[in-house]
Amino acid sequence: MGQLSEEQVLEGLERLTDWEWDAEEVLIHRTVRLPGFLAAVALVNEVAQAAEQADHHPDIDIRYDTVRLALSTHSEGAVTDRDMALAARIDELVAATAQNAH
Ligand SMILES: C[C@H](O)[C@H](O)[C@H]1CNC2=NC(N)=NC(=O)C2=N1
């Protein structure tokens, strides 16, 4: 799957939740706040499983209750459909986590 143009990335983001495009770093990212550190780690564990299934892996940063996920296709140095697909899967996991928290 090939590289997406900036226009294609921005169009794709409209179908995602809270993802932002970083044109300088050439990636998309989303930041999620959880109820605490363990909830943040639990989300990252679920993302890790989805990443293994997809054989596609986000860059992840945990700071206490806040998780930042960044996606780009390292081998292409670009954002691709694989990033968009994993972002959509991550959105599902975040939505399910938020539901469980209520
Ligand atoms: C061999 C394996 O398929 C590759 O190294 C995969 C693994 N996960 C990956 N993840 C991301 N984000 N970009 C890649 O180019 C990539 N390559």
UniProtKB/TrEMBL annotation:
Sorted UniProt keywords: Lyase
UniProt KW Lyase keyword: yes
Protein name, as recorded: Putative pterin-4-alpha-carbinolamine dehydratase
Superkingdom classification of source: Bacteria
EC number: 4.2.1.96
Species the sequence originates in: Nocardiopsis terrae
Stored Gene3D superfamilies: Transcriptional coactivator/pterin dehydratase
Similarity field: Belongs to the pterin-4-alpha-carbinolamine dehydratase family.
Pfam family, one: Pterin_4a
Catalytic activity, reaction form: (4aS,6R)-4a-hydroxy-L-erythro-5,6,7,8-tetrahydrobiopterin = (6R)-L-erythro-6,7-dihydrobiopterin + H2O
Single GO MF descriptor: 4-alpha-hydroxytetrahydrobiopterin dehydratase activity
